Amino acid sequence: MPARVITTYTSQQTVMIATANTPLPDLRSSPIGKYRWTICSLVFFATTINYLDRQVISLLKPTLEKEFSWKESDYSNIVIAFQFAYALGMIGAGRIIDKIGTKLGYAFTLILWSIASILHAFATGALSFMIYRAFLGVTEAGNFPAAFKTVAEWFPRKERAFAGGIFNSGTNIGAIIAPIVVPYIAIHYSWRIAFIAIGAIGFIWLIFWFLLYEVPAKHKKLSKEELDYINSDTAVDDTASPRATANAASLPNGAIPGSAVPHSAVPTGITPVATSTSTTLDPAPLPGDTNADAINIEQQPNISWTSLLRLKQTWAFVAGKFLTDGIWWFFLFWLPAFLASEYKLVGMQVSLPIAFVYSLAGVASVFGGWLPAWLVKNKNWDIVKARKRSMLLYAFFPLLVMVSQTAGSYGMWYAVIIIGIAASAHQAWSANLFTTVSDMFPKSSVASVVGIGGMAGGLGGMAVAKMAGLLFDHYKSLGHIQTGYYILFLYCGLGYLVAWFVMFRLLVPGMEPVTAANLGKHKTKSN
């Protein structure tokens, strides 16, 4: 009895009839090209610049406090101005990028945030800093929606967490470079020149972006094989539905479920008998297959905001961002101040410990995206199980930060190492948190959902920043600012476990993809 084999090749999806002893080519040994990693490197450098620009003020905090006589709450309000604007920017940034496209959207937002960074050099006090920080926040909000939309466009789902981890490590590289470069410029020139020099770097990136970037379908440097590979997605590949299991069992030796097979690779004796514009690997749903509608996830039209806000999948991402982004903001904006307060570090003395923390976090960002893919490939886990278990593992490591001050009493580097582990856990968590969006939503809505979640993350960051300002002013007046840091570290330690429970126990235990079925009566609209 001939076995039915379903596959895709070039831009079509074709149903094939083959005998069970007619193997398909093993695409794992086929050269598919690597240009998508060039695109990933562009996003990595943009993210590096993004974090260079936003971290300058935290490194200049001691200098600016003396020049403008700031209190802790003044600095806190400046941070909040950035985060509030960042949250507002996230509301529209993702939607705008979904509308005008990644190429123009990314370029536009980077030009604006570079200008905003340079304008800090002309600030004359707390109020003007708040205005310029707000401008920086609303424009920098475009980076992550554009970045993850780029990854969704240029990578198949099984590679997105890894690619996301690589470009997300740019946040750490920016945070490593900044404490080395910014204090040096401020000491040898001025703090105003530091803002101008760092802000101008973005314009160099733009040259490479326009030279090297285009959407995959239009890119002249992209091979046909690599384009086929990028477009080889089906939702069932990564959700391990009953359909995927059945298809995998029926495939001949050497065939890969969900692989894209180019025309030139179709073996002799296999005759196309039907074609379709659907991305479905199997046109006949298996009984009880709850993921039957998910197979069209990548080609669904753009989902309206109203519909997005009615979905548990959206609120799961929102909860994860709200509960954990503020922790990262706290490390980013207050780590130099913590080292100065606890260990009396000044000027260039903070460079090495901060560079160490973010170097560790950079490695963890890449590892965080790599681990789920490794579990899928080597342990035969489905992507849902791999993603959830990996994120739970990362959620436990920040607990260590609750004892960082105690450990630091024996030596500064004990505290630095522990904070580095906590920051690393955040980056590993974040690489997967962002990828849950492309796991559950069609490409056309990825930037919008990332924008909504980014807004929630900004609001969470504002809450932490306000709490930090109030706590530090209070305990500083009592001569025990360390108590304020201890309270913040308690939250930093527990936040990820709370977020994991809310996401994967209360809201989306199975990370079900958004489908026509669970959208129900919610309307969708095309781009």
Task: Explain the overall architecture.
The protein has 527 residues and is mainly α. The chain has 21 helices and 3 strands. It has helices at 35-59, 61-68, 72-100, 102-119, 126-140, 143-154, 157-168, 170-188, 191-212, 224-230, 235-239, 242-250, 305-308, 312-343, 351-379, 383-396, 404-408, 412-440, 446-477, 481-507, 516-519; strands at residues 3-9, 12-18, 271-276. Strands 1-2-3 form a 3-stranded antiparallel sheet, with no helix packed on it. The longest helix has 32 residues, at 312-343. The radius of gyration is 24 Å and the shape is globular.
Tally the helices. Answer: 21
Strand order of the largest sheet: 1-2-3
Which percent range fits the helix content? 55-70%
User: What percent strand?
Assistant: under 5%
The global form is globular
Report the end-to-end length measured between terminal Cα atoms.
45 Å
Low-confidence stretches: 1-30, 234-298, 521-527
Indicate the radius of gyration in whole angstroms: 24 Å
Helix-strand sequence: EEHHHHHHHHHHHHEHHHHHHHHH
Average pLDDT taken over every residue: 77
Give me the count of strands: 3
- Biggest sheet descriptor: 3 strands, antiparallel
Structural category: mainly alpha
What features would you highlight for this structure?
527 residues; mainly alpha; three-stranded antiparallel β-sheet; 21 helices; 3 strands; globular; disordered N terminus; disordered C terminus
Structure described in brief:
By secondary structure, this protein is mainly alpha-helical. It is 68% helix and 4% strand.
